[in-house]
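Lecture 7 notes: from sequence to structure.

We start with a single chain of 259 residues. Read the sequence below before looking at the structure.
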Amino acid sequence: DPNDVKRSMRSHGLWDDLHGKYVAVPLAAWAIATWAHASSANCEKIAELDKNGNGILAAILAPERTVKWHGAVTSRLLVENGYEKYVGPWGNALLKTGREISETEDMQLALVILKSFYSCVKRSVKVHETVSEESLPTLREIAKETSENASLQAVIAEVVDVLSFNGVGFSGLEAKRWCSILFHWMFHDGFEDTTHLTAARMLANVLENIGAAGVPLSQAWLAMIIFDIINGVEPNLAKTEVAPSKSKVLVQVEYIALL
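Now the structure, written as tokens:
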């Protein structure tokens, strides 16, 4: 349906880019991403044509918003279909672009970029060879820039969780710098339960790694849980028709019990 195509193009900011000098570039990026989305066979063909991965890499790093958007989408679709040969450079480019976009407050584009980065991190061990502990400060800065956006915080939490699980751990000063973000994830009522759970698990790991230096943080964690309980954060079961899921306070208490 031509109208559906127009709506899709408009929602991704394509019309803004079409005022530029090189109209064919955003149109081509949109067409390739749409083609990749249609089937895994199309992804295979795109991978064959972009043999060195530089085409998608250039799209991710392009100045045009639409080209970045659809370059990220195409990279995600190819990675999810098993084409991981150049996922390392793509992952680094996505992280770099995500950092730049987070500073512009273009949350819609930042979410697309970080979701693609998460796919790279989740599906390819190769990314762990290039996206190392040095990337944690970049992710931390993105988390700070987008601290009130629940969708972005959820994706960042998933990325850091996967990196930590695969050996890219917190250590020393960097671990302490993440603690304020982890507390924010755990106690923000607007965030998803999975974000609360991920933050509790990660903070438990941080405290275990830093040993005695983590005692003040453990005490702060306990104090915040008690404060939440006192202020009635847990749902009132008498007023709830449907039994709620396990509260974030209970989840955190269980993790503290493991410390």
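DSSP finds 15 helices and no strands in the chain. Keep this in mind for problem set 3.
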